[in-house]
From TrEMBL:
It comes from Brassica napus (Rape). This is Post-GPI attachment to proteins factor 3. One of its GO terms (biological process) is GPI anchor biosynthetic process. Its main location: Golgi. The lineage of its organism: Eukaryota, Viridiplantae, Streptophyta, Embryophyta, Tracheophyta. The chain crosses the membrane at residues 122-144, 156-179, 191-209, 221-240, 246-264, 276-294, 306-324. Involved in the lipid remodeling steps of GPI-anchor maturation. InterPro entries: Per1-like.
Length: 344
């Protein structure tokens, strides 16, 4: 997922939005690397290793004569293979000289696995998606099968619809995070950024409505409309006008910090029985930021700070959905007590 998640886990996606603001790095500025890529794109070879796709025609023939998609996915284009293998060779040379790894086109020198560009980040993104799915399903079961329902079979909890939308947007965001880290191309990058911004914007709406206990539908629309309009405009801007990394970072940071302050304020003043879970997520999310601030090369070519950050969000996701379930139980219990009091 690109640096942007305070939900409070949107603070985690906030980190996603801080993804490098430029593809220019010391590695791809290295004359030896650039010469290697230039020669490879002409000859189709890096040393003894040659790539047929550098000299092949774009006409691949009928679909039934082509390789299965799962095999095509593992193969990269001429430029991608040239860059990767030139990077590998250059890093081996630097290692023999005792020099540290460099970033190439904004990324550390990762080792591919089955054609996957960043295997660890992909695996942890998939696990995050699975934890959100599990959390949403457990929330659904608790709401409709464990807690009392109204006479019309609807839930007492006033924020149920908001959390359902939040769950869908979160799963969508982690899905595109996994796709983006599998293959970093323009379309996967834009989908990753767009889905991250969508969940951050909606999380801001949820944080405002829940922490200020906004229950009147008209008031909810008045609060949500400006945020939705801004987020939609921003997504259209980065997709169809200019993918401005600096501006995108400012937008994500602003929305993320706003949510952080809202949840922290509410945790401090409310008497919610599960406040400790909220505090744990808030504090742990802040500490997780250090993994993005203290960036380091991937260990054994797989585990860098960003992938470890992805791993850190997994238990926080479990804890956050646990808090959401507790909140549903707390509000349902409170509303039932009030209805019984009025009945007397």
């Amino acid at each position: 997922m690109a640096l942007c998640y305070w939900k409070p886990l949107s603070l985690l996606l906030l980190l996603q939005c801080l993804l490098s603001v430029s593809y220019a790095s010391l590695g791809d500025a290295d004359p030896n690397y650039r010469a290697c890529v230039g020669e490879c794109e002409v000859s189709g070879c890096v040393g003894q290793l040659c790539f047929p796709q550098c000299n092949s025609s774009s006409n691949t023939g009928p679909w039934y004569t082509q390789e299965p998609l799962y095999l095509q996915w593992q193969k990269w284009g001429c430029q991608g293979d040239c860059r990767y293998h030139c990077m590998v060779n250059r890093e081996k040379e630097r290692e023999t000289l005792g020099q540290p790894p460099l970033k190439y086109h904004g990324k550390w020198p990762f080792k591919r696995l089955l054609g996957i560009q960043e295997p660890a980040s992909v695996a942890f993104s998939v696990l995050n998606l699975a934890m959100h799915f599990h959390g949403w399903i457990s929330f659904f079961i608790a709401l409709y099968y464990k807690l009392p329902l109204r006479e019309d079979k609807t839930a007492y909890y006033e924020y149920v619809g908001l959390w359902h939308i939040y769950g869908f947007l979160s799963m969508n965001s982690w899905f595109w995070s996994a796709v983006f880290h599998t293959r970093d191309v323009d379309i996967t990058e834009r989908l990753d950024y767009s889905s991250a911004i969508a969940v951050i914007g909606f999380s801001l709406i949820v944080s405002i409505l829940r922490t200020f206990d906004v229950r009147v539908e008209a008031a909810r629309v008045m609060v949500s409309a400006p945020v939705l309009a801004f987020v939609t405009t921003h997504i259209l801007y980065i997709n169809f006008y200019k993918l401005d990394y600096g501006w995108n970072m400012i937008v994500c940071v602003a929305m993320g910090v706003a949510q952080l302050l809202l949840w922290a304020r509410w945790a401090a003043v409310s008497r919610h029985p599960s406040n400790w879970k909220l505090w744990m997520v808030v504090i742990a999310s802040g500490l997780a930021m250090l993994l993005e601030i203290y960036d380091f090369p991937p260990y054994e070519g797989y585990f860098d700070a960003h992938s470890i950050w992805h791993a850190a969000t997994i238990p926080l996701t479990v804890l956050w959905w646990s808090f959401i379930r507790d909140d549903a139980e707390f509000r349902t219990s409170s509303l039932l007590k009030k209805s019984k009091t009025k009945a007397k």
